[in-house]
Write a structure and sequence with these properties.
The protein is an all-alpha fold. It folds into two domains: 1-36 and 118-268, no CATH class; 42-117, no CATH class. Helix content is 70%, strand content 0%. The protein contains twelve helices and no strands. It is globular. The relative contact order is 0.14.
């Protein structure tokens, strides 16, 4: 039931995103995408609320639902989620009234956030690389060599294989990464990473075709092509990245929830 609700919610976000891009790029409603992704707008506030609620749930789970072996890691993750939720709403300014001084002069939104202590390119690289490795490429290669990995007797590897993200979930992350500015040198590596990932997913899916998974793959590939054709409405700064953040966040939270459900059953 939870899986159906998650993918129904994701389908709504996919449809809404494609509609916004189509209206802006092809239907004459210029600027609609930018107006829909303003700072402290729906997508940013939704990301913040999801992170905050997930952080509270993880704190609860660490006390009530899990064996001791995972409690410390879960509490650290909960704290990171709560801090991430506060970062989304620029807690330094909005909660404590801190003003952006010279230290944040390079920040275009003039936001007083912890992550703004890092250069924007470095923070973006860290986030993109982390999500690509953990939720796209690691699962892809695990699926490619699943039989070999399944024969391994290493306890940690066995536990990780139990919570391996499905190809459906990998495609959810790929849709998030498809929301980018195309055909500029700054995002060339992002585009290459996405295209290679989709090619590898296609290899896995077409090995043993399942109708629903094939349809999901075709949807994401088509959406990626559509976003490329509509690249003029995208910006290198914010805009579509607010939607991307929301997608990556709810996909990550869904995976964590499923993993906890699985790990709770293990004799740790």
């Amino acid at each position: 039931m939870a899986t159906r609700i998650f993918y129904l919610f994701h389908l709504i976000i996919v449809a809404a995103t494609i509609w916004l891009v189509a209206q802006d790029a092809w239907m004459g409603r210029i600027g609609l995408l930018r107006r829909s992704t303003l700072e402290n707008g729906f997508f940013e506030l939704a990301s913040s609320m999801l992170l905050f609620c997930a952080g509270l749930y993880l704190l609860y789970a660490s006390y009530r639902l899990l064996p001791a072996g995972l409690r410390v890691a879960l509490r650290l993750l909960a704290v990171l989620f709560i801090i991430g939720a506060l970062e989304e709403i620029s807690w330094g300014q909005h909660l404590f009234g801190f003003e952006a001084g010279d230290l944040f002069a390079g920040n275009k939104q003039q936001e007083t956030n912890l992550h703004n202590f890092l250069p924007p390119w470095l923070f973006g690289l860290m986030v993109n690389l982390g999500f690509y490795v953990a939720f796209v490429y690691a699962p892809i290669f695990a699926h490619l060599f699943k039989d070999r990995l399944a024969s391994s007797k290493h306890p940690l590897l066995e536990m990780l294989m139990l919570v391996l993200p499905s190809m459906h979930l990998v495609l959810v992350f790929c849709f998030g990464f498809a929301l980018q500015k195309y055909f500029i040198i700054e995002t060339l590596s992002d585009t290459a990473a996405l295209v290679i990932a989709l090619l590898l997913v296609a290899i896995i899916v077409l090995r043993k075709p399942q109708p629903l998974l094939v349809l999901h793959l075709l949807l994401i590939v088509s959406a990626t092509g559509f976003f490329m054709a509509s690249h003029n409405v995208f910006s290198y700064e914010n805009v579509q990245y607010e939607i991307r953040e929301l997608i990556l966040i709810y996909a990550m939270i869904y995976w964590i929830s499923c993993s906890l459900h699985t790990w709770r059953k293990l004799p740790l």
